[in-house]
Amino acid sequence: MERSGLLVILSSPSGAGKSTLARRLMDWDPSLRFSVSATTRAPRPGEVEGDHYYFRDPEQFRIMVRDGQMLEHAEVFGNFYGTPRAPVEEAMLAGRDTLFDVDWQGGQQIRASVLGTHVVSIFVLPPSLAELERRLIARQQDRPEVIAARMQKSRDEISHWAEYDYVIVNEDIEASTEALKTILTAERLRRGRQVGLGPFVQALMREENA
Amino acid sequence: MERSGLLVILSSPSGAGKSTLARRLMDWDPSLRFSVSATTRAPRPGEVEGDHYYFRDPEQFRIMVRDGQMLEHAEVFGNFYGTPRAPVEEAMLAGRDTLFDVDWQGGQQIRASVLGTHVVSIFVLPPSLAELERRLIARQQDRPEVIAARMQKSRDEISHWAEYDYVIVNEDIEASTEALKTILTAERLRRGRQVGLGPFVQALMREENA
Question: What class of enzyme is it (chains A, B) (predicted)?
Fold first, then answer.
């Protein structure tokens, strides 16, 4: 059955395993499109333009917002982040799902956008906050004061868990990956997603030979 | 994570494979409870009291309805059918899902009942009406005029497909069984089902060492 594309929102505090889960989901279903955000923040080591982010200066970013090219945007730690709108709409019409790695602000704005009815939102919780801090420190990307700020942001992020359709406590990455796949597979079976159902049922009930 | 039980409504026209799917789902998850309906119709060959139905005379049935013991009830072909309420509530509180094999009238009433927010409803469509008639004839349980009446009831039933959360076109019983399992597994991950999440997140955010 033909279907419309989903907007799959995956949110979690940093270090809860969200990026790994997103990558595994993309490996499982190569038709999934990862939404690349635009940002005004500087690239971190190894980050590639158009792959991890579209790096834009504040003036370019402002123009994109002004011209309605952003599905959502927000300011975090003095930098701007946003989701370019056109690629999401193109994927939806082609029946492809888009995966969004966004924080609660991004999630709220995508849900509130014109595409909100196509959203499936999933929040990934860490098994504990201590574990989260351990992972952030092990990553060795940030200075202690940045880690402290990130832990505060993590608490803020977690406080929004109840806005999401699904919640996964990521105790085991294999089990959490399976849970994500299951959620996507089930959501694709929802009546409203299967765009060909109406005509199919009409044809079914018009059958002459029955 | 502890969770509350679901009310899983499975509806379809007769012959679309619903009973087979229900049985396979029960085999897959023995904790699933099958809701046994009460009815005033006479037992068919092989039907067992308390297993297929609770067979009740019209006066007994009327008293059950009057005393609020029925979650829903309806009249079909001059017979009454209804769902006893207490076992459903007990299962829910114990975190067990109940599977309902009911028609659209039953589905509507369960959805409209006090337990309606716990409902997940799935409609099973046949690939064609001709195939449906063929299966009804092959079953050799009914006379031609009963089959004609059942086909009319099938059309009525199908006309209510759009009231369900999920729709499965049962072209292949294996694939449809997998789809059902996936829907149940995903629905159990919904935020609102996981009753322990609130306290878990509160404890998470109170962690001292993070």
Answer: transferase
State whether residue B185 sits within 8 Å of chain A by CB: yes
How far is A118 from chain B, CA to nearest CA, in Å?
A: 14
Domain positions in chain A: 7-188
ipTM over 0.85: no
How far, in Å, CA of B194 to CA of B198, rounded? 9
B181 is in an annotated binding site: no
B154 pLDDT more than 60: yes
Res A177 pLDDT > 80: yes
CATH homologous superfamily for A7-188?
P-loop containing nucleotide triphosphate hydrolases (3.40.50.300)
Tokens of B104: 């659209």
Q: What value does the mean pLDDT take over residues B100-117? A: 90
Alpha-carbon distance of B210 to B202, in angstroms, equals 14
Nearest C-alpha neighbor of B7 from the set B173, B120, B167? B120
Is residue A74's pLDDT more than 90?
A: no
Annotated binding site of A: 12-19
**pLDDT digits over A197-210, tens only?**
888 998 888 875 55
CB interface of A with B, residues 156-175, below 8 Å: 158-159, 161-162, 164-169
Q: Is B15 annotated as a binding residue?
A: yes
> What residue in B sits closest to A156 (Cα-Cα)?
B205
The radius of gyration of chain A from alpha carbons, rounded to an integer in Å, stands at 19
Domain covering B7-190, topology: Rossmann fold (3.40.50)
B5 is in an annotated binding site: no
Chain B residues touching A130 at Cβ < 8 A: 207, 209-210
